[in-house]
Amino acid sequence: MPVAFSFRKAIAGAGLALAAAACQSNSSTSENQGAAADTAGASPLTAGTWRGVLSAQGQEIPFLFDVAQDGGKPTVTLRNGDERLKLDEISSAGDSTTIRLGVFDAALVVRADGADKLTGTWVKYDAPEPYRVAFAAQKGEQELFAGDAKTPSVFGDLQKGATFRTVFTGADGGTTPAVGIITQDSVNPKRLTGTFLTSTGDYRYLAGNLVSKADGEHIMLSTFDGSHGFLFDGKLAKPGDINNISGHFYSGKAGHETWTAVLDPNAKLPDANALTGMKPGQKRLDFKFPSIYEGGSISPTDPKYKGKVVVVQILGSWCPNCMDETNFLAPWYEKNKQRGVEIIGLGYERTTDQKVAAQKMLKMKERLNVGYDLAIAGEANKDAASQSLPQIQKVLAFPTTIFLDKKGEVRKIHTGFSGPGTGKYYEQEVAEFNKTINQLLAE
Questions:
Q1: Number of domains in the chain
Q2: Three-state secondary-structure class, residue 99
Q3: Is residue 168 part of a domain?
Q4: How far apart are CA 256 and CA 171, in angstroms?
Q5: 27, 111, 312, 340: most buried, per Cβ within 10 A?
Q6: Domain of life of the organism in this record (predicted)?
């Protein structure tokens, strides 16, 4: 998954290869401990739809969420386009309520701010340095972005789902190619959904509005998945014309790039199976990493994997794109393991403490119902991953998927993962995965 900006530098000639879901993390604080505090305090979360706003870099990153009651306890469901992310680890102490953000080591810490209003902070406990972003929310469903009262333009191509040849440019001038997909709602033309794909991942589910401003029409898209808060602001070169768009991309507390997009139905990315490979003379992976269960270890040479097709997943529990891939792999494994297929997940976590890393991976395993083997392989950066797997030329992204044949030889290395937010690209990803497995099983 993209560490919104650090992974982009992995691709030769590309400035910032986004692993489609920026990632940052480190160790828990007293606020983190507050998540486990007693629930005697009164929660300010009342049932209904809320519009939340993260304030960072002088921008507002909006998102919608629903509050409901489940067994007498509040739940929060983040809404990003068609995606629904249910959060049920919620506790209150005094006037403060902590909403843990799924598998991620992060939370919204909020308190009431008048009738049907919240104020607080988005905190990442495992970020390499203190990470806090101001948060506020107002109850009552609203549009994500409000512009003036002008009727927005209606675009035939956009209502079908338009594809854009996109380039992101970082502060250092480095560029990253991408494919943008944006769709205009056929009933309410103000509303948009979309995503951007790069060679290291996608920006998952984006939603927003076509907004009329004083300087013209803007495509405004945002998302918040607990690990990342993204804002895309793209201005149409001419009102009523989507052929050329340019604007800004903001990621959380500090990430910023500019971007341009040209309408192009044939836009595509480099082959994800050709971005990296094995070093000359190398055919097998040679590793032995500690299992997430104390005292155990995992190696592809273990008897369990002998004579089987093995998929090695390079991931981190902090990485939304990795969670998308895991949400595909976990049920797939349960349906297909009897065919002679195994999966090994190699976790690279934002901590050097193996016990803490194991706890993070165990939480992911439990929440996502992962039945395949998981190991703690190292620290969460691509250089550490490359060093831990020296037979590979370079690990360019989280996730990376490696396919081993029945003889234990590496047959394919697939960089990144196009998640369900990418529509047809996700379907292609799944189809290619199944085709590869079927071919290896048939040998």
A1: 2
A2: strand
A3: yes
A4: 8
A5: 312
A6: Bacteria
88, 74 contact by CB (below 8 A): no
pLDDT value at position 228?
Answer: 96
Which tokens sit at 434?
């199944």
Distance of CA 70 to the CA centre of its chain: 27
| Percent of the chain whose predicted confidence (pLDDT) is above 90 | 84
DSSP, residue by residue, 292-355? SSTT-EE-TTSGGGTTSEEEEEEE-TT-HHHHHHHHHHHHHHHHHGGGTEEEEEEEEES-S-HH
Q: Are strands 373-379 and 341-349 parallel, antiparallel or unpaired?
A: parallel
Residue closest to 242 by CA, chosen among 258, 220, 259, 219: 219
Do residues 200 and 311 share a domain? no
Residue 327 has pLDDT above 90, yes or no: yes
Residue 54 lies in a domain: yes
Which positions ≥6 away from 320 have C-beta within 8 Å? 1, 20, 21, 23, 204, 225, 227, 228
Residue range 313-325: average pLDDT?
97
Q: Is the pLDDT of residue 12 over 60?
A: no
Task: Calculate what percentage of the chain has a pLDDT beyond 70.
Answer: 90
33, with CB counted inside 10 A (0-12, 13-18, 19+), is exposed
Domain membership flag for residue 382:
yes
3-class secondary-structure state, position 385: helix
Q: Which of 10-24, 229-243, 400-414 has the lowest mean pLDDT?
A: 10-24
pLDDT of amino acid 17: 31
Q: Does residue 273 contact residue 414 with C-beta atoms inside 8 Å?
A: yes
| Chain segment 182-199, per-residue pLDDT in tens | 999 999 999 999 999 999
Residue 357 sits at the vertex; the CA angle it makes with 276 and 227, to the nearest 5 degrees, is 70
